[in-house]
Amino acid sequence: QLQLVQSGGGLVQPGGSLRLSCAASGFSLAAYAVGWFRQAPGKEREVSSCISTSGDFKKYEDSVKGRFTISRDNAKNTVSLQMNSLKPEDTAVYYCAAALSCTSYSMRSLYYWGQGTQVTVSS
Question: 1-16 pLDDT, tens per residue?
Fold first, then answer.
């Protein structure tokens, strides 16, 4: 089956770090840009970060800029999100998803989704 499989997530204290991974199964992730979406309780889904097909372009939402780093290893068919200096407001379910590009238009037309993983930042 064509799918994205996520790993990582969990509970951390404010200021802590987590690393999320997204692995493609049944297709080449290199053909797609990949975004990390998140949805917190009572809030709309947002794109926290996105990486282009080659990895040469990366985009971050302002609130995570300087704290999150998105990367990819096309040889391993994976995309990762390193989250440092985590804040309680980062608490959300995080999803990776494959798109044609990191444009706003492409971020609304997604081909494959990961199953989601909970990230909770709390003291």
Answer: 889 999 999 999 999 9
